[in-house]
Design a protein that fits this description.
Elements: E1 4-12, E2 18-28, E3 31-34, H1 41-48, E4 51-56, H2 61-66, E5 75-76, E6 85-86, E7 91-101, E8 108-118, H3 127-140, H4 147-164, H5 167-184
Antiparallel strand pairs: 1-2, 1-4, 2-3, 3-8, 4-7, 5-6, 7-8
Bound molecules: flavin mononucleotide (FMN).
């Protein structure tokens, strides 16, 4: 199994309009593969402008926000590619597409790392942050997964958020639960085991 790094990927259209999306970058050799499912703005943008940035942030509200119509996160111009990076990035990589492997469901954009920069220290692991990212992945698959599985996994994740999270994780969790509730058209009873 390849290693996957959950990142905030920014792409841009031909007019320079940036688009922010959480994407799992797949390791391949010295580079990374961006594999967007169709249809997707990230995919359209990569075809139009074959560059991206991958920002690594510990602010998990960006992951939860992008899945709950809160995509307006501050960005900063990059040094070497025509796509900005996330202002809140602890580190970021600037990527150039070198090959496209087409696929009816999930094309793969192989990227060369043009440059890497560090902006702030890594503050350490936190289980609530990891739980929010897991929940964000579940929320991105609400249409595909059975309700019982979503409920079971959210119950488990909620305990890490309650026991180890701070205000940012609580806010990100609330956004995600609101989306789950809207999807189910009724309250979902997430509780501590
Ligand atoms: C941690 C995480 C990783 C994700 N990885 C992918 C991915 O590799 N490919 C993908 O198509 N969507 C992925 N998603 C879902 C996308 O973020 C979401 O569908 C997004 O809106 C992409 O579509 P867009 O480019 O049109 O915005 C991921 C979501 C999360 C929370």
């Amino acid at each position: 199994m390849p290693m996957i790094r959950e990142s905030i990927v920014i792409t841009a259209d031909r007019q320079g309009q940036a688009h922010i999306a959480p994407i799992g970058l797949i390791a391949e050799g010295d580079g990374w593969i961006i594999a967007p499912f169709r249809p997707s703005t990230t995919l359209d943008n990569l075809r139009a402008v074959p560059f991206a940035t991958a920002s690594h942030t510990d602010d998990v509200r960006v992951f939860a926000g992008c899945l709950t119509s809160r995509r307006d996160w501050p960005t900063i111009a990059s040094d070497n590619v025509p796509v900005p990076r996330l202002a809140a990035a602890l580190a970021h990589a600037e990527l150039a597409v070198t090959e496209v492997r087409d696929d009816p469901e999930r094309p793969r954009f192989l990227c060369r790392v043009v440059s890497i920069a560090t902006h702030a220290p890594f503050p350490g692991f936190n289980r609530a942050k990891a739980a929010v990212i897991e929940a964000a992945i579940l929320v991105s698959r609400l249409q595909m997964l059975p309700r019982e599985r979503i409920q079971r996994e959210l119950n488990h994740l909620q305990s890490a958020v309650d026991k180890t999270g701070g205000p940012e994780e609580a806010e990100a969790w609330r956004w995600l639960m609101e989306k789950v509730q809207a999807h189910e058209r009724g309250p979902i009873s997430v509780h501590n085991p």
